[in-house]
Amino acid sequence: MVEGLGLVFALALAGGYLCGSIPSGLIFARLFGLGDIRKIGSGNIGATNALRTGNKTMAALTLLGDVLKGTIPVLIAWRWGVEAAAIAGLGAFLGHLFPVWLGFKGGKGVATYLGILLGIAPVGVLIFAAVWLSLAWFFRYSSLAALAATLVVPIAYAALGLTVPAALMALLSVLVWIKHRANISRLLAGTEGRIGAKG
């Protein structure tokens, strides 16, 4: 039984990683004839940088792809329990952040984080959205709003008694903060770009 669970968890982790490592932004940028997204804007493969191409359709598809590659492996793994679903989510997140196909240089993880929330316990999406929208409206910093939301979600899950999702999202939140080191530095320096700012 223990060996069987070990195999399930290993497959969940590997399957999640493979799904998460699909470079949505890179694929859609090329499909839309925009070349290598890593040579545009910040060089990031995520939806925020995809928007910098000026092609909103491509950016929306990138966002959808990054969300779904977090949701799909979690939902598939749920049939073996919440622990397997959480491990699949962890694999997907690591795949997005550190895709082997791109030299382990991936996105910052917010969209995939949302996708994992949708699969592991959907109420987390509402909590995340409430925090993000409130802070983004008040402060006009997307990165600040996202970072704050990733702090609130694990605490809210824990308060709701969702122990495994809370532990998973706490770990993923740490990774999100690490990947946003540059944004945090700019926020502290007052040089982070605001939502809607020109130039």
Written description of the protein model:
With 199 residues, the protein is mostly helical. It has helices at residues 2-20, 24-31, 47-51, 56-77, 82-97, 110-120, 123-139, 142-159, 163-179, 181-189. It is globular, with a radius of gyration of 17 Å. The mean pLDDT is 93.
Short structural summary:
This protein has one domain (2-99, 107-189). 71% of the residues lie in helices and 0% in strands.
Helix content: over 70%
Rough outline: globular
- Biggest pleated sheet: none
How much strand content do the residues show? under 5%
Number of strands: 0
Mean pLDDT: 93
Structural class: mainly alpha
Which stretches are low in confidence, meaning pLDDT under 50 for 5 or more residues running? none
Order of helices and strands: HHHHHHHHHH
Secondary structure tally, helices: 10
Please give the domain count.
Answer: 1
Terminal CA distance: 59 Å
- Rg, Å, rounded: 17 Å
Write the layout of secondary structure elements.
Elements: H1 2-20, H2 24-31, H3 47-51, H4 56-77, H5 82-97, H6 110-120, H7 123-139, H8 142-159, H9 163-179, H10 181-189
